[in-house]
Design goal:
The protein is mostly helical. The chain has five helices and two strands; from the N terminus they run H-H-E-E-H-H-H. Strand 1 and strand 2 form a beta hairpin.
Length: 108
């Protein structure tokens, strides 16, 4: 459920039919794997596009150094390509989180 409702990449690929997400349960005691299939509410979950994580709020978890470097590198490439600052945030929930809790940048 989380993959379909939180990841835009997974959501879009499943909706386009280029990816299937199936659940499974692995019992470490017996070594038995139980396949559960697709989420029973997947069609309902695909109706709502996941929110895009444009800004890291103060509650965001720490980012490993390699991931932070990749994020900064791609952000710099966008800026150098003339696309810096073009994102408009109109998500009311995100704006409230930012105004009440602040941001948590990956680097300073």
């Amino acid at each position: 459920e989380t993959m379909l409702s939180a990841s835009g990449v997974v959501h879009d690929a499943v909706k386009a039919g280029s990816l299937q997400v199936h659940g499974a349960y692995f019992d470490v005691t017996t070594g038995k794997l139980t396949l559960m299939g697709e989420h029973p509410s997947s069609s309902q979950l695909l109706l709502t596009q996941p929110k895009v994580d444009l800004v890291r709020t103060a509650s965001a978890v720490a980012v490993p150094a390699e991931e932070a470097f990749a994020m900064c590198y791609s952000g710099n490439a966008r800026y150098a390509g003339g696309q810096g600052g073009s994102m408009k945030v109109d998500d009311e929930d995100l704006l409230v989180q930012l105004s009440e809790g602040g941001q948590n940048p990956v680097s300073i």
